[in-house]
Every structure is written in structure tokens, then in C-alpha cells.
Amino acid sequence: MAIQTATFGAGCFWCLEAAMNQLNGVIQALSGYMGGSADSANYRRVCDGDTGHAEVVQVEFDDSIVSYQQLCLVFFSLHDPTQLNRQGNDVGTQYRSVIFYHNAQQQQNAQQMLAELSAKQVFSADIVTELSPVSAFYLAEEYHQGYFLQHPEQGYCQLVVAPKMAKFKQHYTELLKR
Question: Catalytic residue at 72?
């Protein structure tokens, strides 16, 4: 067993965190903040847009069960990587598409995937996903952890997260925990 960590920002962290936690081989996925210049982060400050941090999901996984490349594919399938500093109605740098690599191998794998997706023109516009070295991770407030599973009736969850999760479960059936 080789435990690794991966960190992704795909707009609001509720959807990505819920999906990653359902993948076989993922030990845990936690919502948080990363990539800014402020030496601390909380939801209010990050939403104000003055910290430079993005909403991210940090994933602890066993790479003998689920690969980093598979995590990257899930990441790209759960958001629109062609939208600069936004996802749908969520606007601001905190909602940017970003991969924070933890080592040279992750950087190389992410660069290769970005190049392949662009070459195959998987998306109708240019991919704007940022690729950055990992920096300090600030754990999001407790009420954000597992938010979708705890609040499926909440409006945003019903309108935005639930349809993405249904598509995710249908497309990645073979990767889901049993």
C-alpha cells in the first residue's frame, strides 16, 4: 500500500469532496483552502476573495487501488476546466480550476493529462486549469466536511451537486466503493 495525497480545486468543494470520498482506494477527501498568500483561511475570508486561496479538496489515497491519473480524470469530469475563475454562478479566484501537485511525478502526470485533453479537444474551449506546487492546506470548517451527504435537500445541492453526482456514479461505477 502506497499512501499519497492529491489536491484539486474545481469550484465549490462540496461536489468534488463527495465524489472523491466514494472512490475505492480513497482513504479520505477533505474540503479546505490552498494557494493564496494569506497565512490563514476560513470560508468568509476566502469568499471575500482577499486571501488568494482556492476552495480545494485534499485526497488521501492508496495508489495501488486508485491511481493519480484516475483521480485527475474524475476531477476533470466534475467541473468545467475552461471557465477562468468561476464555475457556473460561483465567480471569483476561489473557484478556479487548479491542480496542486505534491511531487514531480504528479506534476508530470497532470501536465501530460492537460496536454492529452487539449490535443483530443475534449472540451469545447481551451482548458485554463492552473498547475501549481502544493502549499499550506487549511482545513475548511467542520460543517463543510461531507456537506452534500448531510444536506442533500439544500437548494444548491439539489440543483448543482446532485446532477453531477448522478453522472459521476453512472460514469465511474467500476471505481466506486462497494
Answer: no
